[in-house]
Amino acid sequence: MQLGMLWLDTDKKRSLEEKVERAAEYYKDKYGRLPELCLVHANMLSQEKKIGRIKIQPTNAIVHNHFWLGSA
Q1: Please, where are the H alpha helices in the chain?
Q2: Which end of the chain has less neighbouring CB within 10 Å, N or C?
Q3: Phi, psi angles (nearest 5°) of residue 17
């Protein structure tokens, strides 16, 4: 990633989609564009998926409840 932001969301009432959308909106406000990629812990997502234009990828390199958003 060329530019990235780490986001924490521990709210158990929100879905993964809601969490990613909230993080992406903050990213957009901060950097002036939407992120292209979001990395999440593999326990949160079993396989890659898209939420809007954002590709969500599971990895063990990210701590649970954290979201690494950025541009490729």
Answers
A1: 16-31
A2: C
A3: -60, -45
% helix, strand, coil for the chain, step of 5: 20, 35, 40
> Which H or E run contains 61?
none
The pLDDT tens digits along the chain (72 residues) read 667 999 999 999 999 999 999 999 999 999 999 999 999 999 999 999 999 999 999 999 999 999 999 987
Say if CB 3 and CB 71 are below 8 A apart: yes
